[in-house]
Structure formats: C-alpha cells, structure tokens
Amino acid sequence: MPMPQTSASLPRPHTLIEFGILSASNPTISLSEFTYTRGSEIYSEKEPIEFVYQVKSGAVRSCKLLSGGRRHIGAFHVAGDFFGLENGDVHRFSMEAMVDTIVHRVRRESLDAAAENDGTLTRDLLRMAATNLGHAEDHMLLLGRKTSMERVAAFLIEMDKRLTTAGILALPMTRRDIADYLGLTIETVSRSLSHLRELGILRFIDNSQRHIVLVDRQQLAGLDRQN
Amino acid sequence: MPMPQTSASLPRPHTLIEFGILSASNPTISLSEFTYTRGSEIYSEKEPIEFVYQVKSGAVRSCKLLSGGRRHIGAFHVAGDFFGLENGDVHRFSMEAMVDTIVHRVRRESLDAAAENDGTLTRDLLRMAATNLGHAEDHMLLLGRKTSMERVAAFLIEMDKRLTTAGILALPMTRRDIADYLGLTIETVSRSLSHLRELGILRFIDNSQRHIVLVDRQQLAGLDRQN
DNA sequence: CGCAGGCTTGACGTCCTTCAACCGTTGTGG
DNA sequence: CCACAACGGTTGAAGGACGTCAAGCCTGCG
C-alpha cells in the first residue's frame, strides 16, 4: 500500500547551520536553545529587536491587534522556519507559541557583525527577506480577493506542504488562529471545513478536530484556483 | 495665508544616485530613461527580471489577476519610488503605468555585480526589501480586518503623505485601482468618499473627482484607528 | 462532578457586493 | 463642428456571503 505523500515543495533548511546563518567560518555566533510553553509570548509588538530565531520544534504565530478585539495573524512558523528577522529597530508583530515550542536564537548584532564580512550570509538574509515578501504578497491577494472557500483551501494546501507526516495533517493552531490568519471568523472556517468533509475532500481523524487527512489534493487545489 | 502642509513623513530619496544605488564609486552602472504612456505595461507577471526601476515622474501600479476578472493591486509607486526589485527569477506582479510615466532603470545584473563588492549597497537593498515587507504587512492587516471606511481612510492618509502638494491631493489612480488596492468594489469606495465629503473631512476640487483637499486629517486618522 | 475551552451548527443580521440607471467629460469619426 | 460612444464616477435598490448570536456537544481538568 503506497504511503500517502505530502505534496512536497522544495525542502527547507533544517538548522541555522545548514542554512548558512551559522557555518564553520562563523565561529563567533553563539547559539542557544530556549523553550516556550503553549500560549506564552516570545516577544511583543514594538519591542526592540534582540534576537533572531529558528523553530526547532513546535509552532508559533505572529500577530497584531486592532481596536474592538480584532486580531490579525501574519504568518505561522513551524519546525525549520526562521522568524524575528526584521530590518527595523522594533518588532512589527508579537510572536506567541501555539504549542510547547523549542527555538534556537542568536543575537541580532552578532548576525549583523557576521554579515559584515560574509557576502554569502548577506545574500542568504536577502533571500529570506524575499521569501517573506513573497508570502506576504500571496497573502494579500488571498485577503483582498478570495472567497472563504478559496482561503480555507489555500490554507490547507499551505499547511499540507509544511507539516503533513505519514499522511496526517496535524494542525497546531486553533480555529481562531486559522480565522485570524485568513481574515474570517471561526464559524466560517468551521463551516468551510465541514463542507470540505461533506464533499469527501478531507477527513477528520479520531476525536481531535485538528488532525486531518487530505483525501483529494487535486480537488482541493481546484477550489483555490489562482487564475 | 499659511500654506497647507502635507503631513510629511521622512523625505524619500529622489534619484538612484542619492539613494546610493548609483554612486561615484559605482561608475559601472549605466542609467537610462524610459517613458511609458498611460495604461501601458512596463513588465508582466512571470516575466524574467531584467531591470530595476525608479519612478522619475508619473505613477505605476503593481497587479495580479485571478479567475472571474478579479484583480488585486499590491502597491502604487510614485515619483521617487523604486520597483521591480525582487529576489526571484521572475516578476511576481505585472506593472502598469497609471498615467504617462518616466522611469530610470538599470540592469539587474549590474546591480548585483555592484552589490558584490559594496556592503553599503547590499545593506540598502536589504533596507528596501524591509520597507516593502513592512508595507505588505500593514496592508495584510488592512485587507484582513478593517472595515471599508477604515480602508479608505488609511488609503487617503497614505497617499496624502506621498503626493499632496500645495494642499491638493491629486490622485493618479481611478476608483477601480483604489478598489482593487483596498479589496473593495468601486461603488463602496465611491460611497465611502462621498460619506467623507458629507462629513466635511474632505472636499472634491473642480470637475475632476481625483483632485481632493483633505480638510481634517485628525478626524480622518481617527477613522482608521490602528488600535 | 462541574466548569472552561474548543468546535459545530442553526437562525438571523449586516456590510459589502451586485445590478442598474444616470451624469459629466473625453475623444473620435463622419 | 457636432453626434455619440466610451469611460469614469455617483447613487439607489436588491441580494448574498460572511458575521453575529446563541445553543449544544465533546474533551480535559481541577
């Protein structure tokens, strides 16, 4: 019986070292490991930037707040992802752990100092900034012009690429997180998922609503037609 | 009689030379001037990246298309702004002139080559990428969680900073452009503007609906409460 | 057990879209 | 020169997609 395959995009780097942020030629940067419990804040909006992070295990969300209790989530970061790498003086989003999470972090100054003498590292930083920008641009399109169904489909496709293992997509985020990421309400997200289940495109697993099996990725992709 | 002042933010660079993209130490980069007529396409989505541009005069829009005739505008660029500076191989947006526009452009390779030996230039590129990212993040919040009124107010505030002269805000874009930028329809944009006029927050000038005087910036800012 | 948090589902409300009519300006060809 | 189509904008009426409100289920936990 064939193993259900995730629709794997290009594999992403797994450690600061592999990515080139740390390398044998940069022995000056010290790496330390930190643990955050579910729901705790790693840093908050407008806080001065001290560290750059990489998720070792777990998952985090970056968010902003508006009046009237409105919340917006800009991105999710899971194992392997970098975050906190911004080019201003202060953070533009707050960052919270969605589940118990282990991160690696390095002082931002040491990174800057290392980049000073290392063109490769600088290009890596530029490439990462471009990756973030590309994601943000796609997400603007989603928020500005897509229907609720297209948004949820796009979300599932994105998460499937990133964290499906052994055929199971184990989402670390709540319906509220998903809603605030997609610019919807929890009810609309829930209804969209129920509808996808009724269509046979996905299945819920066990008694946890956060474990999902994507049955028909083709059809799912069809629901988020980019063109 | 006091001159009405634009709520000027930090002044932006005015030429590639001032910005540092071109400098006396980079005599290798050749600069050329190009003109595009209203409505013409400067480059299109998925086209290989050849040049990096700066608007000399006029204004351009970056846009994407979806099925069903849906359009999304990611950003507007006016005199002084850079565009086309992406880090992939191909453009992620198409770029069109909204009015007759003159641009300066340099070959992307010559820029890359110059950056190779010039840490300052590289840092400038990083800074520009960060600026774009910051704008995209703010815009995601707008598209995901703001009401139509808040969006239009935010739009006016943004454009006021960039192109109000002598107290008059002369918009280069149509209602459709504004709508596709804000994730709304032209009718909703028009109604919001009419409502602002009724409230005495702005006035239309002459017989062009694109020339506006902002009467009460304070009140306008109040309609787009970030918090 | 009792309570809180997360999810689903239904009924209803609303903000924005859709559809349509109309106006003024621009530009174009007879 | 003028008729008239094309374009951009405004406004009203009706509709719909998503939001709001509410009830109920399930699980985990003190």
UniProtKB/TrEMBL annotation, chains A, B:
Gene3D superfamilies: Jelly Rolls (2.60.120.10), Winged helix-like DNA-binding domain superfamily/Winged helix DNA-binding domain (1.10.10.10)
SMART domains in the record: cNMP, HTH_CRP
UniProt KW keywords: DNA-binding, Nitrogen fixation, Transcription, Transcription regulation
GO molecular function terms noted in the UniProt entry: DNA binding; DNA-binding transcription factor activity
InterPro entries: cNMP-bd_dom (IPR000595), cNMP-bd_dom_sf (IPR018490), Env_Response_Regulators (IPR050397), HTH_CRP (IPR012318), RmlC-like_jellyroll (IPR014710), Tscrpt_reg_HTH_Crp-type_CS (IPR018335), WH-like_DNA-bd_sf (IPR036388), WH_DNA-bd_sf (IPR036390)
Domain HTH crp-type as annotated: residue spans: 146-218
Highest taxon of the lineage: Bacteria
Annotated Gene Ontology cellular component terms: cytosol
Keyword check for Transferase: no
Keyword Transferase tagged: no
UniProt xrefs under PANTHER family: CRP FAMILY TRANSCRIPTIONAL REGULATORY PROTEIN, FUMARATE AND NITRATE REDUCTION REGULATORY PROTEIN
Protein name: Transcriptional regulator
Natural source organism: Bradyrhizobium arachidis
